Amino acid sequence: MGIFTAKPLSYKDIFDEAMALRRTLEIPDNMAFPVLRFIEHVIPLIFPEFNFKIVKNHELPDSYASTNPLHGVLSVREEVYVGATRDSPRDRFTIAHELGHLILHGPESIVFHRKENMESIKAYENPEWQANVFAAALLMPPDNVINMTVEEIQQTYKVSKTAAEFHLKNVKKQYGEKM
Ligand SMILES: [Zn+2]
């Protein structure tokens, strides 16, 4: 059995990528990222083959959503889609995580290893870690959250308390180590 790793990316690399996307889309730093609007109205303009699928639970039995960056397919369970239309923090994060795969994990960045086991993967080359860091930075722009409280982050960016706390801790650590 083999595993996939991604081209190694640091926190700073991923933060920069997420912030660049927000700036390109001209999303104000204090605005919650419109995950569904981006998927339904923006990606198709720049990526005509992009295929966004809303599926039944049994079609995605093991996860809430999944992405195939190679074929430009993003599938989410119906319940996640509906949750996101209602600004559910968890569902917004799930979709932002998939956007991380779509944006960071194109064909050149993913490597298949035949032998290695999970323990030998470093966090920085783990695609799941990278997608989580991307999701957090896209939803909560690091430059802004550094000066906010957890409660302000939750309200401004429509994220969960857990996600806000975890991200704020990481951002402070990164900025403390001269970013
Ligand atoms: Zn993932």
Tally of contiguous helical segments: 8
The CATH architecture name reads: Orthogonal Bundle
Name the structural class: alpha+beta
The CATH topology is given as Arc Repressor Mutant, subunit A
Taking the sheet with the most strands, its summary is: 3 strands, mixed
- What's the total number of strands? 5
Distance between the termini: 38 Å
In what range is the share of β-strand residues?
5-15%
Q: Considering DSSP H and I runs of 4 or more, what fraction of the residues is helical?
A: 40-55%
Task: Provide the succession of SSEs.
Answer: EHHEEEHHEHHHH
Instruction: Tell me the strand order in the biggest sheet.
Output: 2-4-3
**What is Rg?**
16 Å
What's the SSE blueprint?
Elements lengths: L2 E4 L4 H14 L10 H12 L4 E5 L9 E4 L4 E5 H8 L3 H16 L5 E4 L13 H13 L2 H4 L4 H8 L3 H16 L3
Parallel strand pairs: 2-4
Antiparallel strand pairs: 1-5, 3-4
